[in-house]
């Protein structure tokens, strides 16, 4: 067995952020005798996995790498010459960054595969931290140039997926490289999960700036211990006194008590909330209130409902629900329900991608005419601080 993962992780912590992958390569090869390692990072559309070290081995749709990424389990793959490749997911709190490849001279035992998996987990934490200090890994993620609006939007995101004993959560933006105003945000704090989905008004940089103001106003209220009503009202007043009602943002704010499975919601506009339960997809009826920023000192009311274990919630923006390619009915009328039902065996992080792919197919792969956001919450069941609620 190689040295303890902690000693390799120490090398990660001491590495310069832009050289982290090279340091990991040397440390892993020294510990295991591996012939090669590499880190593959998922692109913005989660359409492929791209190497950091060896671009000559770029295979964005490698079936084995994709299987590891989607299953979130290590995969052992035999190759020519008796060599073996171990692929392990790079994941932090449920956020899927990519996969780690370790190529060995022979077939590894279960202990070595587990060791590589532990090292991959530590490396994922280091990569996420390094991402704040270098542009290197972001350049790998982008397969084309982002618009300035999209740059703002992706930097504003909390992440793209999150795992917790009580739930799984994931979101996706499209068009990934030119999204303007649509956005999502979330935060987990003690026993409270807050999720917001914004249906931005307009397009381009102006829409992205408006969304950024709204998101940061809600974060400011939330980080000052403000509830949903205070978050909505502060954001609404901030936008109104900037734009005097000319511009506004339709937003859905949701707060989940992870101990009880109780949901509190403020529907300030048009994002749509749907629930998949026992094979049936229904829209959850909420009283639609004024979008944020339409009038001064707008007041908002909270509505409540309960979740049951196994429930899946989807929040979608108008760019998904109301999408109506020429000659077709809106996507949300029937096609989206079929798409949601088809995801029943997929984890949340895969389900959002499936709905987006089906949306693109509904448009016959033409460019989306509007921004689109899909957020998926899988409710596993209430938990206490010390574990599962029985």
* Helix content percent band: 25-40%
- Kindly provide the name of the CATH class of the largest domain: Alpha Beta
Shape estimate? globular
CATH superfamily of the largest domain: PPM-type phosphatase domain
Rounded to the nearest angstrom, the radius of gyration is 22 Å
- Ranges where pLDDT stays below 50 over 5 or more residues in a row are none
Q: What is the number of domains?
A: 2
Distance between the termini: 39 Å
What's the total helix number?
Answer: 11
Question: Could you tell me the number of beta strands?
Answer: 18
What is the fold-level CATH name, i.e. the topology of the largest domain? Phosphatase 2c, domain 1
- Overall pLDDT score: 91
- Major β-sheet profile: 6 strands, antiparallel
Short description:
The chain is an alpha+beta fold. It has helices at residues 5-14, 20-32, 63-71, 110-130, 136-141, 148-156, 204-223, 228-243, 318-321, 335-341, 348-362; strands at 36-42, 49-51, 75-78, 84-92, 95-104, 161-164, 167-174, 183-189, 192-199, 250-257, 262-268, 272-277, 280-283, 303-306, 312-316, 372-379, 383-384, 387-388.
Explained architecture:
With 390 residues, the chain is an alpha+beta fold. It folds into two domains: 5-140, Beta-Lactamase (2-Layer Sandwich), CATH 3.30.450.40; 145-388, Phosphatase 2c, domain 1 (4-Layer Sandwich). The protein has eleven helices and 18 strands. The strands form four sheets. It has a six-stranded antiparallel beta sheet with strand order 6-7-16-15-12-13. A hairpin with a 2-residue loop joins strand 17 and strand 18. Helix 2 runs antiparallel to helix 4 (110-130), helix 6 runs parallel beside helix 7 (204-223) and helix 10 (335-341) packs antiparallel against helix 11. The longest helix is centred in the first third of the chain and has 21 residues, at 110-130. It is globular.
